[in-house]
Protein: Homoserine kinase
Organism: Mucilaginibacter gracilis
Amino acid sequence: MRTIKVFAPATVANVVCGFDVLGFAVNAPGDEVVMRFTGKPGVTISKITGDNGRLPMNADKNTVSASVQHYLKHINRTDVGVDIELHKKMPIGSGLGSSSASTVAGLFAINELMDRPLTAMEMVPFAMKGEELACGFGHADNVAPAMLGGFVLIRSYEPLDIIKLPTPNLYCAIVFPDVDVPTRDARQMIRKNVLLKDAVVQWGNVAGLVTGLFMNDIDLIGRSMHDVLVEPTRSILIPDFYKMREMAMELGAVSFGISGSGPSVFAFTRDEQTATNITTKIQQHLTGLHIASQTYVSAVNQEGPKVIG
Amino acid sequence: MRTIKVFAPATVANVVCGFDVLGFAVNAPGDEVVMRFTGKPGVTISKITGDNGRLPMNADKNTVSASVQHYLKHINRTDVGVDIELHKKMPIGSGLGSSSASTVAGLFAINELMDRPLTAMEMVPFAMKGEELACGFGHADNVAPAMLGGFVLIRSYEPLDIIKLPTPNLYCAIVFPDVDVPTRDARQMIRKNVLLKDAVVQWGNVAGLVTGLFMNDIDLIGRSMHDVLVEPTRSILIPDFYKMREMAMELGAVSFGISGSGPSVFAFTRDEQTATNITTKIQQHLTGLHIASQTYVSAVNQEGPKVIG
C-alpha cells in the first residue's frame, strides 16, 4: 500500500498590524504526517508523537483525521481508508498555528494520495473546519498560509476571499516562551470597541505592509508593522514583551511582534545571522527570568506543505 | 515677465474603504491657476473666477496664495513676487478636493516658475498647510493625489509617510448633487467608537483594494470597495444614496461610493461609455427629485498637475 510523508509549516497570524486578515508561513518549525492506505473504509490514527499525550487519538475528534474525513466525503470517496501518524515537531498552544500545521499536513497528504483532485486553495475550507474543531471558530489566518505558503491575505470570511501576496525575502526569528496563553482567553481579553482614529492608524499600516510586500520595500514593511489596537492588550500575557522587542530592534530586526495570540514572538530580519543573534539574546534573557523557551530561525516559507518521504 | 498656466486635478478621498488613508485623482474636473512674476516681493491675487465670490482675495487668507507664501519662505526666496489668477472649474464644497486642486495648482506653478527646486512629494506638506487653512486640519488624502497623480496611500501622518500606488486603468463617473454638506459637519457625524470586528472587515478591504491595484485585478478592486464604518453615517446626508448606488451597479459599475465627505458620489467603470451611462441616469433621477447636479466623466488621472499654457 502506498505511504506518504508530508511536512506542513508553522505560521504567524496577524503579522502585527493585520489582526485576523494576514498570516505567513515559516520554514521551521512545522509538523509531519505519515499517511497510508489501509484497504478498508475509514480514517484512523495509529500514532501521535511529540504531543505529550495532549491530542485525541479518536479519529472524529482529532483535527487532522476529522479534516481528512470531511475531505473524503466532499470528493465522494468515503470508500477510501487511510491511517495517520502525526508527528508534532512544534509546541502546542504556542501561537504558531500548531493545529493548522497538523491539519494542513493531513489534507495535503490525502490530496496527494488521491492524485490531487483539489487545488491548495480549494482545500483551505477543509482546514478551516479543523480550526473550528480545535479552537471554536474556523479562522483562516493560520491554515491559509500553511496551505498556500508565503504571505496570505484573508480579505473576507463571508464570502471567503483569500489572496496570496508576494513573499518577502526575509528571515524570521521566533521565540516561544513556555507560558500558557490559550487562544480563547487571548481573544476574550481584546476590547470589542476601538477608537475610529486608532482603526485608521491600523488600516494605514495594513495598507503600508501590503504595499511593502508588493514593492519588496523592506523599510516600508518594517515601519508599517505597528499595532495600536491588539498588541497593547495581548502583550500583558507575554513575559517582558517590550524588553524583548527592544532587544530585537537593537540587534537589527526589521520588525517585532506577537505571533498570533502569543505567547510566541517573532522578528523579521534581513539575514539569518541577525535572526540567530536575536533568538540567542532573547532566550538568554528569558532564562535569566527562569522561563524556559524554544527558538526557531528560518526563512519565510515560499512553497507551503511538501512531500518529504 | 514670465507667465504660466497650470491645471491640477480634482480628487476622490477615502475611496470607500480607505477612510483618511487613500485617495486618487481624476482627469476632470480640476482647477486652473495663472501665475506671473510681478517684479516686487510678495504674493497677490488679482482675479478669481468661478467661485461666485466665495473665496477670499486677501493673499494671507486664500489657501492658494498662503501656500505659495509658505513655499517661498521655505526656499528662502521671499524676495520673489508673483500674482495669481485662480479659475475655479469645479464646485466648492463638493467633496472633490476643490481647495486642494487650487492649492496644488498654485504650488506646482510657483515650483515651475522657480525651476523646480522641490519634488512633488516635497511640496505635499505645503499643500497640507493650505488644507489646514481651508478646513481646520491638514489632511493629505486630497492634496497628495492631486499633487502626485494617480492613487496614493497616506500610511501615516506622524511621521508623514505617503506612498504612490499603481494607477488602475479605470474610468470614473462623478455626480455632484448640489446639496450642502460642509466637511466639518460630515466629520462630526461619524462615530468616534467602532466595533473591532467592523474595523477588521474594513482593513481586510483596504488590504484587498491595495492588492487589487498592484495586481491590476479589477474584480478584486470592486469587491474590496465596501465601507461598513463611515458610509452608513455619511450616506444620510446624500439624497437617495443607495438608490444611486443600485443604478450605478446595475449599469455595470465596478464600485460606487461617496467621494471624500460628499455629497459627490463616484463610480469606477471599465470603460468611458459605462461611466457616461451612469452619470446620465443618476442625473435624470436627481432631476426628478428636483435636485440640481453636475456630472463628470474621465479616466483616473495618472500624472497630477500639468502646465497648460
Notes: Chain B touches chain A through 37 residues (CB under 8 Å). The two ends of chain B are 14 Å apart (CA to CA). The CA atoms of residues 212 and 220 of chain B lie 5 Å apart. Residues 171-299 of chain B form a domain with the Alpha-Beta Plaits fold (CATH 3.30.70.890).
